[in-house]
Request: fold
Amino acid sequence: MRVSRLRRYPVKSMLGEDLDAAEFTPSGLTGDRGLALVDTETGRVATAKHPRRYRDLLQCAAAFTAAGVRVTLPGGRTITPDEVGVQVSGLLGREVVLTARRPAGAEVERPAPEDVIAAGVEAEVPFATLEIAQGTPGESFVDYAPVHLITTATLDRLGTEAIRYRPNIVVEGGQEAFVENGWVGREIAVGEVVLRGVLPTPRCSVPTLAHGDLPLRPDAVRPLMRDNRVDVPGFGTLPCAGLYAEVLRAGTVRDGDEVRIAG
Reply:
């Protein structure tokens, strides 16, 4: 197996950037989900997991430049972090502020994907509140663990684009779909880095949403609901695709690096 794609998302729930190489530390890929928007009314982190409120974050893109993080708005205008709060508040119709410091116990709002698919992205549906980054040291705004990976076999089974599942590492090789379920607890050598699988990745409605030029895709998680519901410790039995992993040995990962599973 090998790395076929490396991705970083500088601002949570915005589109990200492809990388030729990336540094991984115990906190994950350097710069990944290092920034997020916080809703001033609720105090919670804004994420497209709650589509009615925040799906338009997926129409924005964030990338690192020589001058720092730059955000590109729908229509192509590029702005600095100092401008993001005001501009994105106008886009969402809710006041949000950009922050690099994750509040203690930071939470997001997450409706069940079944409810969003049934009612539509603009409908009011019940949602749970979840604490993020419970399996991650440091202050990044990852959902759970420092690193998220998915295989091309799983993506091929889903018949959808990797961008909808927002991985850090896409692994290409001769494995079967949903093979990541069996990597929990196993060491994964990727270039100089050693990871360990910690949980299958539960899926919300985000893969079904429009991502930049990609349209709504309500069927993007249906195969998971039917074929890959997994008992995720602490979270229940949920549709899953991919793997959350922790970093055992820091280092550099490059596009094309070999991927080896121990044990």
Summary: Residues 81-92 form the longest helix (12 residues). DSSP finds five helices and 19 strands in the chain.
